[in-house]
Amino acid sequence: MKHLSEYRDAGLVEGVLKEIRRTVTRPWTIMEICGGQTHSIVRSGLDQLLPEEIELVHGPGCPVCVTPIELIDKALAIASRPEVIFTSYGDMLRVPGSGRDLFSVRAAGGDVRVVYSPLDAVKLAAANPEKQVVFFAIGFETTAPPNAMSVVQANALGLRNYSVLVSHVRVPPAMHAILGSPHNRVQGFLAAGHVCAVMGYWEYPSIAEKYGVPIVVTGFEPLDIAQGILQVVRMLEGGEVAVGNAYARVVTEAGNKPAQELIGRVFENCDRKWRGIGVIPDSGWKLRPEFAEFDAEGRFDVAAITPQESPLCIAGEILQGLKKPLDCPAIGVQCTPEHPLGATMVSAEGACAAYYRYGRVPLE
Ligand code: SF4
Prior knowledge:
alpha/beta, five-stranded parallel β-sheet, 19% strand, binds iron/sulfur cluster
């Protein structure tokens, strides 16, 4: 397949790995932001082929992982109501809140449906005027444009039975939080290519300068990731603080301007809690006041829900690059994909799930 199979070519990847081995002279810790990149790295074994000087740590860019548990409990409470059709992408259905998941709500008679786009949820609202249709609008900058479009479209159609349960998060404030921590270990970043396809990378030079770290926009195939690592290593070895683009076939510095304008029309910045990490200032989007009537949290009384995380789970430290999944004694024992205890095992994109799925967890 054009623009895919060549980026999985083992010979081409090995050529870049050789160049990395030639370039590196001392230890460096590099974080890949995105859970999709983490899975590609662990699945292909790329981390085990790198010279021992380079340690990859896994970032917080897994949208299901960082959705706060209280928001999942709010989704469960809303989805249980008899007047509600609750809609979501499929990967949220098995994410546990404090006791159950959306599958259990559906098994108990709740009307929970998987949709492939929030615009399908708008169509459901138009076709079911006697019902309240709610869409679970989670994710990073990548899912914000269609979610914003659904609100614009529902408003234009005069639908007052459509709302969104919003938990949007933004990458740049998370990078500030990681790099500004006194415990930070990250010396260079692989930025998430799909986020940058929407938002561009014009926000990154100020982050690179402020903390003295190189940042390279990187794709998702093994060759993309190897090329991103090579660019970061060259900058680190040369003492260069800059922003590079190793995903130029998809990403421009400006990004997708119409998508950014649509996001800005519907959402405004807010502080947001990240599961396992806590509140990061200015790291989320919420509906602007002119669209507040489409906010499911306001429409349904769910403000008082305050659940607790498992005390065994170290997902917060993993998401900040301070620890790795095998540092957790619960992995593969009390915590598995079937019975996840925390954020990074919950999602198919989570770092703990990647280690479990690709055989990195030692058998007892
Ligand atoms: S293995 Fe499970 S309990 Fe341990 S950090 Fe990962 S998600 Fe949390």
